[in-house]
């Protein structure tokens, strides 16, 4: 790239702070203070849009650093606020910028552009406009995913983007199968590790295999049942080999995919029978009770927690339901399909997930939440705890926690018990 043009210099921190200073204050409908001054929402919105237009222009800058900072700033804004009308007017410009950054950028810029493409489709939802975006970006993403000379990080980001955009956009079953085949060609290479004596670059590509597997699993949840049966027959006997992988995240991805495949198999056939059930449950039980000293405590704790749930799913057809709170609403995650979908979008939206669950029509449709619940400012104000009350509650909780810990740490507490 050439020299940056005469603009305010960018850094990663500046980019995120500059955007979030305009987004975070009103990204959450309830994020106002009771005693603060009234905010002119129209002026704030205009100010935000003015800055976003500037960031869109900067995605064409000669400096790679400036382009990447602009992409990251747009990502922060898109994840923290619904900007449907603003994006609708500029979707072709944004699509062209993303395409150019993925084709010509280096690894970090490609990752940022792929992340922005995901958020662009999340904002637009499923419709003709999103289909046009995917028609443009789909072939570019597939090319990077299959390009062995591209960086692993860029291929990983493009694999995730490909899966999410296809999930949101495609009504064309042929395109769905084509995308799944592209992802399958990537993660099935992980099956051959046990046979590989060389182990050439196998660990190097693990992150790519994980992303491809998770993206493929997401797309499997929207496949017709006859295709689901074919995929289960192909992969259910091969996936357990990934449970022996050295990488924790691969073991977890394989375990959760197995749980989801068993769930789908039992939905299609109530009498579904898996021949190697005893061997599989032994593997899962070993991972659920793993105490190997060479593994970090945090990794062991995470692994045991996940595989206890996977074992229950495979053996007992059980799922530990979770509740997600967002604003005044509650959503229960009561199956592996729903969990996979929720985890995927949470990874993309980050802290903006709750806001999008409240306001994004597409996500509400995916999770069957109905139309957005409209609450006026007065209702939100009555629901919110005042700053002073929150301070008193936190102080009381802190004192109680300190006392409890002090008792546990006081060596004199146990004196006399053994005499």
TrEMBL record:
GO biological process, one term: cell differentiation
Any matching Pfam family: IFRD_C
Region described as Disordered: 1-38
UniProt-listed SUPFAM superfamilies: ARM repeat
Signal peptide residues on this chain, from the entry's feature table: none
Keywords: Developmental protein, Differentiation
GO cellular component terms given for this protein: nucleus
Domain Interferon-related developmental regulator C-terminal: 360-413
Highest taxon in the source lineage: Eukaryota
Statement: the UniProt record of this protein carries the keyword Ubl conjugation: no
Domain Interferon-related developmental regulator N-terminal: 19-315
Quaternary data: Interacts with PSIP1/LEDGF.
PANTHER family: INTERFERON-RELATED DEVELOPMENTAL REGULATOR, INTERFERON-RELATED DEVELOPMENTAL REGULATOR 1
UniProt record similarity statement: Belongs to the IFRD family.
Protein name in UniProt: Interferon-related developmental regulator 1
Lineage: Eukaryota, Metazoa, Chordata, Craniata, Vertebrata
């Amino acid at each position: 790239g050439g020299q940056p043009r005469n603009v305010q210099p960018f850094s990663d921190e500046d980019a995120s702070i500059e955007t979030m200073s305009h987004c975070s204050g009103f990204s959450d409908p309830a994020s106002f203070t009771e005693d603060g001054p009234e905010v002119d929402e129209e002026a704030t919105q205009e100010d935000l849009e003015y800055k976003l237009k500037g960031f869109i222009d900067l995605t064409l800058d000669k400096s790679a650093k400036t382009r990447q900072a602009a992409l990251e700033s747009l990502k922060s804004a898109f994840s923290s606020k619904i900007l449907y009308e603003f994006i609708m007017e500029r979707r072709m410009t944004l699509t062209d910028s993303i395409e150019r950054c993925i084709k010509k950028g280096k690894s970090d810029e490609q990752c940022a552009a792929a992340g922005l493409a995901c958020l662009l489709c999340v904002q637009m939802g499923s419709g003709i406009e999103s289909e046009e975006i995917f028609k443009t970006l789909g072939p570019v993403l597939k090319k990077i995913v299959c390009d062995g000379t591209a960086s692993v990080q860029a291929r990983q980001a493009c694999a995730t983007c490909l899966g999410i955009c296809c999930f949101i956009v495609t009504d064309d079953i042929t395109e769905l199968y084509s995308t799944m085949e592209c992802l399958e060609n990537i993660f099935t290479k992980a099956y051959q590790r046990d046979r590989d004596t060389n182990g050439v670059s196998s660990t190097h590509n693990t992150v790519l295999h994980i992303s491809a597997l998770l993206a493929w699993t997401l797309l499997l949840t929207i496949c017709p049942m006859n295709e689901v049966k074919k995929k289960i027959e192909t992969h259910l006997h091969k996936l357990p080999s990934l449970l022996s992988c050295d990488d924790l995240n691969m073991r977890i991805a394989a375990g959760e995919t197995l749980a989801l495949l068993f769930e789908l198999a039992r939905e299609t056939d109530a009498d579904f029978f898996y021949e190697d059930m005893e061997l599989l449950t032994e593997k899962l039980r070993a991972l659920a009770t793993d105490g190997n000293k060479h593994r970090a405590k945090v990794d062991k704790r995470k692994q045991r927690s996940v595989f206890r749930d996977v074992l229950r799913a495979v053996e007992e057809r059980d799922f530990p339901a979770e509740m997600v709170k967002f604003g005044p609403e509650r959503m229960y995650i009561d199956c592996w399909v729903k969990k996979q979908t929720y985890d995927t979008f949470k990874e993309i939206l980050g802290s903006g997930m709750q806001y999008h669950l409240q306001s994004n029509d597409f996500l509400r449709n995916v999770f069957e939440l109905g139309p957005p619940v409209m609450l006026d400012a007065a209702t939100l104000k009555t629901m919110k705890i005042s700053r002073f009350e929150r301070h008193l509650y936190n102080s009381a909780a802190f004192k109680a926690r300190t006392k409890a810990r002090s008792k546990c740490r006081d060596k004199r507490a146990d004196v006399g018990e053994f005499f």
